[in-house]
């Protein structure tokens, strides 16, 4: 057996003979198991609930009776964002942003402008997920098991005893790395088995799964190297423990907590009330499609009459009220899109700032990586919102066109006893409306989103390895 | 009984060694040769340079000038290679408390590539004076003397050309000291060069073939046993006192 393996084996023997270490490790495995099961149960329940509600919403939409198309515009439609398989491992911002939307004409009833979106990268201590266990708890266990790896040997003088037997500094450090690495592997293994079990469902994409696995492996390897580095750099075990707990507190707890607050302060985001007031103000200046005397719509009316070569809307071959609906929706959607884009941009800058702070905290970087690869980050939520808005706009405009083409202007403006029946469109029209189908991103897209976080974690790992190589040179040195 | 070392090669070769920490000169032209199959005791007061001499031989510190060779290897250039040729018994024995006496010996011997069977290890522990009931006990409850016996057993089991001893009898009672000296002589007789750093003139006189008196970082007096006669402790003490006064003057 090589010297490195002998040293690693002895370090593991010490851990096994330390009952506290064994109990702590058993507790972590138990915690991981609970996290996997609760995540699996939660995700499955959520997916079923959303699928059932989606089905019911589609059924309710299709079951509408013969009615005027504009009533259908206001009747609206509920859609739900289906969860990807990896969301069970890391639900990301899903709990904060919600995943259901009510689609209707003239409005974007979404969380687009909501306060909760500012929390897109907040630490989620309330949720027990495999990702949380690996990000937060596993490093702490590694610290408690490994802080004395070299400091204890230095403190007790056994480091020289090792070297006097011919073990080189490099062999000693590699032995300690191997032992703690084995513990990290065992620590991460239950979560990774859970990850494969949770994520290995139909539709799971190999590339993001591999990215997550590599990211978490690099993160745990980073902690192993950091622990051995600190243990090599100090002369007393107690100092190593204090330094490592402080490092964990700052990198895992403090910075991920502070970063979103810094981002919110640096890039303020309007709350819902402010946004609603601003939109209402802009709508007043823009005009009202329901008000035929509005200057904008008066000009629109003239252009329509000119295009068709008639002088009265009654002489148009199409229902002018339908055309008004089309134009009104186009205008309001342009306005809503402008606000949505501004909001997205602010959130993008907030997230960029948080990811910048991730240079100081590998935990933030890993969290970004994990959510991006799982498709549960802000970009994933935005993807859903944009697809939902595109569907809403197409649906409303289709109904407006239906009003323009299938309901005559005369009937639409008639008030006689039978007019209401003549304005109606057959119920089969609603059944022919396409359902909302969320197009999930490709594996390459998800992996590309996770790449910056992965680069930061690997960069940290490389830096820590270089520092450890430098610290190794001074190991056991004494006057 | 005296031991003939006149034709033996030097396993430890120190020539004109100079070493300073900051402004303080610790070794000042130290010259010392320890032939294979001999025991040299190095005596001296605190700060005389005894421990620094051992640290230099072990490659933990590097001299500013002079030559150091351990079994032909410069520990300043190749410390790991030099250490593989040295068995070292420190004054304050550092062993693993989570391991038993046998496990400690097995682990350290395995690291040095000199792995032995359990029977060989227990023989060495017995020879070092450790009681049988302690062999399979973890070192957490061991006294200093018991730990030292484990370390002695490990040092004796290392089949290397050089044995360095740092105050080896400081934790031992007179009976154990006599037993230990017998062990050291047995190691010498198999061809090992032994360098013993000690305050204990009586023990040095009992076991050493040659005694050097270290003061101010160099050997100021060196005495070898001759023929069948051992050292006269009273005469040794007087010679060292004179040498010390001469140096001070």
Mean pLDDT of chain A: 84
Strand-and-helix sequence of chain A, N→C? Answer: HHHEHEEHHHHHHHHHHHHHHH
SSE string of chain B, helices as H and strands as E = EEEHEHEHHHEHEHEEH
**CATH hierarchy class name of the largest domain in chain B:** Alpha Beta
Q: Based on Cα principal axes, name the global outline of chain B.
A: globular
What's the CATH superfamily of the largest domain in chain B, by name?
P-loop containing nucleotide triphosphate hydrolases
> In which range does the helix fraction of chain A lie?
over 70%
Tally of separate domains of chain A? 1
Gross CATH architecture of the largest domain in chain B: 3-Layer(aba) Sandwich
Textual characterization of the structure:
The complex is a heterodimer of chains A (479) and B (249). Chain A is mainly α and 479 residues long. Chain A has 19 helices and 3 strands. Chain A has helices spanning 3-17, 19-62, 69-75, 94-97, 130-146, 148-156, 158-164, 169-199, 206-233, 237-266, 272-286, 295-308, 320-357, 362-374, 378-406, 409-413, 419-422, 428-431, 443-473; strands at residues 77-80, 100-104, 107-109. In chain A, helix 3 packs antiparallel against helix 15 and helix 6 packs parallel to helix 9 (206-233). The longest helix of chain A has 44 residues, at 19-62. Chain A is elongated and about 105 Å long. Chain B folds into 2 domains: 1-85 and 162-249, Rossmann fold; 94-159. Chain B contains 8 helices and 9 strands. In chain B, the strands form 2 sheets. A 6-stranded mixed β-sheet of chain B has the order 5-6-7-3-8-9, sandwiched between helices. In chain B, strand 1 and strand 2 form a beta hairpin. Chain B is α/β, with parallel strands linked by helices. The chains are: A mainly alpha (479), B alpha/beta (249). Chains A and B meet through helix 1 and helix 7 of A and helix 3 of B.
